[in-house]
Design goal:
Blueprint: H1 9-17, H2 19-26, H3 31-57, H4 82-111, H5 117-142, H6 147-171, E1 179-180, H7 184-210, H8 227-254, H9 259-284, H10 289-311, E2 314-315, H11 326-334
Antiparallel strand pairs: 1-2
Helix pairs in contact: 1-2, 2-4, 3-4, 3-6, 3-10, 4-5, 5-6, 6-7, 6-10, 7-8, 7-10, 8-9, 9-10
Length: 335
């Protein structure tokens, strides 16, 4: 048995003043633990997007008609509110699970030795995005599922996924200056891919805002454009992303690039093909709810895949501290 030290009054005051530093002094997580914490935050960021889509697709967007309470008289959903109230309130509760995952990532990053300040900042960035999106989610309810606020809600979730994916990648790297693995022309091609993928996701929110899934059975404002025409633009952008990905894979093969960028590009290409097939099937079957939910999951995976391609273009080894050599050591000894 390991003896637990008794906490003194000074320890208690220290824990209150700076709980993260207090934990860091007494716990040193393994690198694998930090990586798992960052991955858990990323997974929960995707889960909250998918469950938010389920709220919309089941028409439960106003299952809790107000915010921050579920109703004017109740903080939680009641049995009288039925299925829609349970779905909407359940999604709100998942925000706390997401906060717990982000909190674990922050604590693990802060406690790692040596302390990597950049990792901790990425964790806190996720926390503030979650808080901002929670407030925006409340505004979405208060304005009756206005489609523009719903689109902003999804894009802010995409920002959360971006930071979470970056933190997960950084937990598996060192802190030395990044070294490029490919030339400038390849980097420029990848940045074109990133921009095209973001436009693809942004236009996808317009398809949702103009489409038949308003998020509630009541009369909900829609974006005043033809969702079918926007869906065709969405498909064109998807083909551009697929073409850029295939061109990138071809270029990487031609320049004999390292296996990391090649594997990430291959993975993205396979995700895009699956997402494209799913998109066409849901279009020609009048957007069934189950397929739309899978398409939202695919959208998250596509964006993560694009980010992983971008981050694979460089490597960051462990920072090496210069140690005195044999000659210097003997000189110091003589002194």
């Amino acid at each position: 048995m390991v003896r637990v030290q008794n906490l003194t009054r000074a320890d208690a005051l220290s824990a209150v003043r700076n709980p993260l530093a207090f934990i860091a002094e007494r716990w040193t997580p393994a690198s694998r633990t930090v990586q798992r914490a960052a991955l858990a935050a990323l997974v929960m960021a995707v889960v909250i997007v998918v469950t938010g889509g389920a709220v919309r697709l089941t028409g439960s967007g106003l299952g809790c008609p107000t915010w921050p309470k579920c109703t004017d008289d109740s903080l939680t959903a009641t049995s009288a509110m039925g299925f829609h109230g349970a779905i909407e309130f359940g999604n709100r509760m998942l925000t706390y699970v997401l906060c717990a995952a982000v909190g674990w990532a922050i604590i693990a990053a802060r406690s790692q030795k040596p302390w990597r300040r950049g990792l901790t900042r990425l964790g806190w960035a996720q926390f503030w995005i979650v808080m901002s999106n929670a407030i925006l989610g409340g505004i979405v309810v208060l304005v009756g599922l206005n489609p523009y606020t719903v689109a902003a809600h999804f894009l802010l979730s995409t920002a959360l996924i971006t930071v979470a994916a970056l933190m997960w990648q950084r937990t598996r790297e060192g802190d030395a200056a990044p070294r490029p693995l490919v030339g400038k022309s390849v980097e420029q091609l990848v940045w074109f891919l990133v921009v095209a993928a973001f436009l693809l996701i942004a236009v996808g929110t317009v398809v949702t805002g103009a489409g038949p899934h308003a998020g509630d059975s009541s009369e909900v404002e829609r974006i005043p454009v033809s969702w079918e025409n926007v869906a065709k633009l969405h498909a064109v952008l998807a083909w551009i992303v697929v073409t850029l990905t295939f061109a990138l894979w071809f270029v990487l093969k031609a320049v004999d690039a390292p296996q990391g960028p090649l594997r990430r590009t291959r993975d993205l290409f396979l995700i895009l093909l699956s997402q494209g097939v799913l998109g066409y099937v849901q279009y020609f079957t009048d957007l069934p709810e189950a397929l739309v939910a899978l398409h939202m999951l695919g959208s998250c995976l596509v964006w993560i895949g694009v980010l992983r391609v971008l981050l694979s273009l460089r490597e960051r080894p462990e920072a090496v501290t210069d140690l005195p050599g044999p000659a210097t050591t003997s000189a110091l000894t003589r002194a």
